[in-house]
Amino acid sequence: MAKTVIEISDERLGDLEPYKDKLGELLLLGLSQIKIQESLLLYQRGLVSFGRAAELAGLPEQEMIRQARAFGVYPRWSEKMAEEEVA
What pTM was computed for the model? Predict the structure, then answer.
């Protein structure tokens, strides 16, 4: 298993104290959120499709839509895409 040392400011150390037994979970949750944010940024810049952004974030599209809304990002839908969804 790899070992990583992380420096944390004294001001933030107190914030982590209640979670000292869950630091692994905290790190994975933060990683998940960063992946979502970065994927949404790529989508907003038009560099990837929404489906690809979901793949990069490791989420199904429906969950990615919920996450996008939470960050104030709304998928771009063309009229054709909307018709295909309804059909």
Answer: 0.74
Closest CA to 56 of 35, 29, 28: 35
Contacts of 37 (CB under 8 A, 6+ apart): 71
Q: How far is CA 24 from the centre of its chain?
A: 18
CA angle 16, 29, 19 (to 5 degrees): 20
| Whether the predicted pLDDT of 82 surpasses 60 | no
Per DSSP, helices labelled H in the chain are 10-16, 23-44, 50-57, 61-70, 79-86
pLDDT in tens, 34-44: 999 999 999 99
Closest to 73 in 3D by CA, of 36, 53, 38, 44: 44
